[in-house]
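Example 3.2
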Amino acid sequence: MGSGLVPGRPRGEDRPGRARHPLPGIQAPSLVLHRQGSRAVRFPLGRALATAIPGATLSALPGRMQPIDAEHGETAARTMLDFLARHHGASA
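Structure, written as tokens:
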């Protein structure tokens, strides 16, 4: 059985009556911010999430603290503003 985050192999895909995972259907520009040292949600899961969303951008931030702005907040904010500027024409 797939993990539910691996593209093409959603959780329950091989079992009748189970819903397909919605991540591959996302069409909006998507940014996945993830801490490289996160203990709560390991980095490979963040990478899998970004991989499961077509065209998603994965940004690996230093540190391990949550929420995302708790550590290196300026870096996290700049990453989000740059993404918005590239995809939505927002001023950064």
